[in-house]
Amino acid sequence: MKEFMMLFHSENTTNDQAPSPEQMQAMVAQWQEWIGGIAGQGKFVSTNALTPVGATVDASGVVTDGPYAEVKEMVGGYLICKTDSLEDAIKLTEGCPTLGYGGKVEVREFMEIPDM
């Protein structure tokens, strides 16, 4: 099996009102159900959410705070799965909560690197 990473992209909502505790609980339940379905198929490897705290380092070593408030699209998290093909990994995105909120899921295959 090959490993794939799903990157969850959504619109930057820093100016919008934060969800209520009930809405957050419902969102967490959606994620748990979707990820549980992938795990139930034996295709789950790992997942995590990302905070808005971070930095960018350029080739000259300059460090800039980021992600930035003016950026329209943010990466909010990722999931790593194991499937036989890109097409199978894409099928696993069905029901992803990010898609229900108008976001996108980027699916990328990991490159195999030979042992050194």
Can you walk me through this structure?
It is built from 3 helices and 6 strands. β3 and β4 form a beta hairpin. It has a single domain (2-109), classed as Alpha-Beta Plaits (2-Layer Sandwich), CATH 3.30.70. The strands form 2 sheets. It has a 4-stranded antiparallel β-sheet. A two-stranded antiparallel ribbon has the order 3-4. Helix content is 27%, strand content 35%. The protein has 116 residues and is of the alpha+beta class. The two termini are 22 Å apart. The protein has helices at residues 21-40, 86-92, 97-100; strands at residues 2-11, 44-49, 54-57, 63-66, 73-83, 104-109.
Number of separate helices = 3
Total DSSP E strands: 6
Q: For the terminal residues, how far apart are their CA atoms?
A: 22 Å
Integer count of domains: 1
Structural class: alpha+beta
Spell the H/E element sequence: EHEEEEHHE
Low-confidence stretches: none
CATH architecture: 2-Layer Sandwich
Portion of residues in helices?
25-40%
Name of the CATH superfamily: Dimeric alpha+beta barrel
In what range is the share of β-strand residues? Answer: 35-45%
Rounded mean pLDDT score: 90
Task: Tell me about the largest β-sheet.
Answer: 4 strands, antiparallel
